[in-house]
Amino acid sequence: MRKLVITIAGHDRPGIIHEVSAALADQQGSIHEINQTTMHGEFAGLFTCAMPDHSQDVQKFTEVLSRTLEGSGLFHWVSAGDDLDETRPPRPREIYIVVLRGHNRMGVIPSFSGAVAEFNVNIDSLRTMPVTGEHDVDQVTMVFKLSASTEVNKRAFRQHLNRMAEKLGMELSLLPRDIFEVISRM
Questions:
Q1: Is the dihedral of CA 85, 89, 92, 97 positive or negative?
Q2: Is residue 107 located within the same domain as residue 160?
Q3: Are 140 and 172 within 8 A, CB to CB?
Q4: Pick from 16, 121, 147, 158: most CB atoms within 10 A?
C-alpha cells in the first residue's frame, strides 16, 4: 500500500470530510487517520490514507481532489508518504498528556515547546483554551499530547518540564496516556 497525506484548509461547512473521504473511496483509497479541527469558522484537516500500489500517482489524485473541491474555497495539498509496511513494527513510543494552566502571556508556547524539544520529544497535538479568570485576568489551559522515545529519561524530563512551568508561573500536570484515559473514564 502507498501512503498519501492530504491537508485541507478553508472556511468550514458541512460535508468536507464526506467529500474528501468519498473521493478517496472512488480511487480505492482508505483513510487510516484523520485529525481535524475548526476554529473561528475555519476548517483544518490532515488525512493519512492508504492507496493500492497500482493506484494513480499523487499528481493524478490531486487532480481528482481538485475537481471534487472545485468552487468550495478549500485549499488542499496531497503528498506521498512512506509506503505503508504493515509488517514493520511501530517504533516504541510513550505517550504523555500534559496540561499547563496559568496566566496567558506572550512567550509561553515557545518556551514550553522548546523545553519539550530539548528532550527530543514530539508534540503530537496541542489545544489551547482561553479562560477568563477572576478580575478579567486572561487565563489559558493548554493540553499537549506528547510522544517520547522509550529511552527518554522520564524523571529528568518531568523535572525539566516542572522547572519550566514554574519559571513561567504556570501549573503543570503530566500523565502517561494510560493513566489519563483511566481518569477520564471515571
A1: positive
A2: yes
A3: no
A4: 121
